[in-house]
């Protein structure tokens, strides 16, 4: 494997790689370390303590916004994944036709349009709707999150569908499976790893969104990221580090779990 | 509209009520032998391309395939053989015409309502299922009870000699084994007709020869009508009861392997199947299925000819390489040997005729003597009275 042209043998490869890892992980490592700081400062180390975790855990606002974050992420990720699955089926189970590329662009629009533009647009539209309907619940956040999560769910599902042999579905139809049974017994099981990957991506993307949430949310609808952003405007304590660390552990946990589930399926 | 859909429902019921093929076994061979299992009547399929160009993949094709027959659709790629197979399977619908299964038009039915199964060129085995689950899939979709499915799957595994690999994933077995699973899966629901779309093309030479024999055995043991698609003329000749030779959306000839090889209806068939020499000449006299032809070399030879050839017309003659003989001295044709190719069982000798064309003679080899000719020899070619045939162009 490791021949003369292997990238790992290029001059300076190791140093560049080390620098990248250093820049990526040093801030995160610092954040995690100072979460255990027994001091009010996030930069001056005093000693080891779980005090800030304790404080965060007992902070009703933290818990409330965390729960809200998970609620929105769960609903939005599921809705986005269902929509993305249908979109992926519709855009791959067809011969290329004029306008198909336009549809790809349309579905992936949230990836291309600057988030701030979407955020302002949603703010304007939703504020009108709020006046007309009088409704000001979490629905707006769920709708917004679903919309920008769709491309994240769509991409892995489409990739999976494109690598799937179309003759499998033909074979199922030949063996007396109706369209629904073909989907249920052949397409869906084979697509499952892609769907899980899409679901996971959508969930994580929804969980840490700040910009759109900040613009769309009504009073008292802070998610954990917007709550933390609000905290930064006041005095910064290692409580923020503690919350972030807990979040980090949770994210790694979710990703790992999804990885093992999807590996078992394939 | 209403009466049409009602009509369709009746048809569907009729098709699903057809008794399995095996039940006919006792009815007597004369009746079953002449009964068409599948009949295409004036089938046309036009593929509309982008813009103006459209392709006539099948052009008013009619053919009757008999019950219990090993029937082959043979032709070069693009001739429409796979299109016809897909129309019978239900993966595609004819632009015009009827596809009948035991007398009922099945052309409007979706594939899952046709008692017809397919062995795909790529096998199309379900990668997320075991060998046994693959084989039982059709029966499961038909809603058969579990015990029945298990029994049938076991019987199928036995039929294709795959019992030990029952619980393997399809990715864990070899190409030849995948082929057997694909066959077992298609045979398990006991279809009226089995369609095979170039199923042996992915196998290496030796395995392909083995599977050819295996397929013949399976067809014999199950008594199911096989419709086999191939572009390999040798495969078609060795396996089929009857062959339909196709070209450019038409069926040119239907007949036994012997028919299409030795009595081709037209030039394309003679050219596509086996190796052939073509000679041009003029009809001197014709009648009674025989013709006397004056070749360009001046020699006159006898040939079999269909009705319709008249004295004075031009004619293309076909002579198979094994039906001509190389002689020292003058024959019906004369020329110079250009190349001698040794094939083990026989030798192919290419002779440059005095008129300029190349003529090939195939000569059986023997252990004790060489072929008796050398490159550059002036030789004669003798064509027997029964060796040549006049062809339609």
Automatic annotation (TrEMBL), chain A:
Q: What is the species of this protein?
A: Mesorhizobium kowhaii
Taxonomic classification, please?
Bacteria, Pseudomonadati, Pseudomonadota, Alphaproteobacteria, Hyphomicrobiales
- What subcellular compartments does it reside in? Cell inner membrane; Cell membrane
Ranges for domain ABC transmembrane type-1 come to: 66-261
Which keywords does the record carry?
Cell inner membrane, Cell membrane, Membrane, Transmembrane, Transmembrane helix, Transport
Which InterPro entries is this protein grouped with?
Bact_Polyamine_Transport, MetI-like, MetI-like_sf
Q: What does this protein do?
A: Required for the activity of the bacterial periplasmic transport system of putrescine and spermidine.
Query: Which protein are we looking at?
Result: Spermidine/putrescine transport system permease protein PotC
Q: Where are the transmembrane segments?
A: 12-36, 70-90, 111-131, 137-157, 186-207, 242-261
State any GO CC term.
plasma membrane
| Family listed | Belongs to the binding-protein-dependent transport system permease family. CysTW subfamily.
Annotated GO biological process? transmembrane transport
Q: What topology in the membrane does the UniProt record assign?
A: Multi-pass membrane protein
What main location does UniProt list? membrane
């Amino acid at each position: 494997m490791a021949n003369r042209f292997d990238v790992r043998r290029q001059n300076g490869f190791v140093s560049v790689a080390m620098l990248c890892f250093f820049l990526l992980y040093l801030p995160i490592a610092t954040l995690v370390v100072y979460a255990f700081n027994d001091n009010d400062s996030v930069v001056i180390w005093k000693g080891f303590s779980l005090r800030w975790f304790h404080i965060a855990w007992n902070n009703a606002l933290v818990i409330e916004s965390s729960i809200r974050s998970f609620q929105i992420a769960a609903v939005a990720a599921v809705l986005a994944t269902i929509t993305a699955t249908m979109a992926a089926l519709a855009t791959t189970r067809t011969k290329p036709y004029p306008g198909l590329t336009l549809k790809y662009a349309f579905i992936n629009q949230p990836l291309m349009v600057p988030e701030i533009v979407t955020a302002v647009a949603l703010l304007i539209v939703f504020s009108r709707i709020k006046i007309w309907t009088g409704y000001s619940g979490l629905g707006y956040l769920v709708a917004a999150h679903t919309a920008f999560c769709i491309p994240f769910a769509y991409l892995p599902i489409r990739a999976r569908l494109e690598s799937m042999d179309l003759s499998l579905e033909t074979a199922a139809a030949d063996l007396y499976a109706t369209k629904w049974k073909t989907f249920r017994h052949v397409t869906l099981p084979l697509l499952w790893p892609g769907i899980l990957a899409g679901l996971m991506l959508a969930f994580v993307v929804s969980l840490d969104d700040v910009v759109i949430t900040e613009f769309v949310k009504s009073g008292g609808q802070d998610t954990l990221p917007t709550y933390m952003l609000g905290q930064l405007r006041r005095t910064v304590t290692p409580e923020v580090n503690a919350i972030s660390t807990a979040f980090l552990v949770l994210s790694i946990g979710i990703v790992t779990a999804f990885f093992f589930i999807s590996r078992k399926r394939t | 509209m209403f009466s049409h859909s009602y009509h369709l429902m009746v048809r569907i019921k009729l098709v699903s009520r057809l008794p399995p093929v095996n039940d006919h076994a006792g009815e007597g061979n004369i009746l079953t032998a002449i009964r068409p299992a599948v009949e295409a009547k004036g089938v046309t399929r036009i593929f509309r391309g982008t813009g103006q160009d459209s392709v006539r993949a099948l052009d008013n094709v009619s053919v009757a395939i008999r019950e219990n027959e090993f029937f082959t659709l043979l032709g070069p790629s693009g001739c429409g053989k796979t299109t016809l197979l897909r129309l019978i399977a239900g993966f595609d619908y004819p632009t015009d015409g009827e596809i009948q299964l035991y007398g009922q038009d099945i052309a409007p039915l979706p594939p899952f309502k046709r008692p017809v199964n397919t062995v795909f060129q790529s096998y199309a085995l379900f990668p997320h299922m075991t060998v046994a689950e693959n084989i039982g899939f059709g029966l499961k979709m038909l809603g058969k009870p579990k015990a029945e499915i298990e029994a049938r799957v076991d019987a199928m595994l036995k039929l294709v000699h795959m019992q030990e690999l029952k619980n393997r994933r399809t990715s864990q077995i070899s190409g030849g084994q995948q082929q057997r699973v694909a066959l077992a899966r298609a045979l398990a629901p006991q279809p009226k007709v089995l369609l095979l779309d170039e199923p042996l093309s992915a196998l290496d030479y030796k395995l392909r020869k083995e599977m050819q024999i295996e397929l013949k055995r399976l067809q014999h043991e199950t008594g199911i009508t096989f419709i086999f698609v191939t572009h390999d003329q040798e495969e078609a000749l060795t396996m089929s009861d009857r062959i339909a030779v196709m070209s450019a959306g038409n069926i040119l000839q239907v007949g036994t392997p012997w028919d299409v090889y030795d009595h081709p209806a037209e030039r394309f068939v003679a050219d596509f199947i086996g190796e052939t020499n073509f000679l041009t000449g003029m009809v001197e006299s014709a009648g009674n299925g025989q013709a006397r032809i004056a070749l360009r070399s001046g020699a006159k030879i006898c040939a079999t000819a269909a009705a319709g050839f008249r004295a004075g017309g031009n004619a293309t003659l076909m002579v198979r390489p094994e039906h001509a003989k190389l002689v020292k001295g003058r024959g019906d044709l004369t020329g110079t040997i250009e190349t001698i190719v040794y094939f083990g069982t026989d030798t192919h000798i290419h002779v440059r005729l005095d008129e300029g064309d190349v003529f090939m003679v195939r000569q059986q080899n023997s252990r004790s003597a060489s072929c008796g000719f050398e490159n550059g020899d002036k030789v004669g070619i003798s064509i027997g009275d029964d060796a040549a045939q006049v062809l339609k162009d």
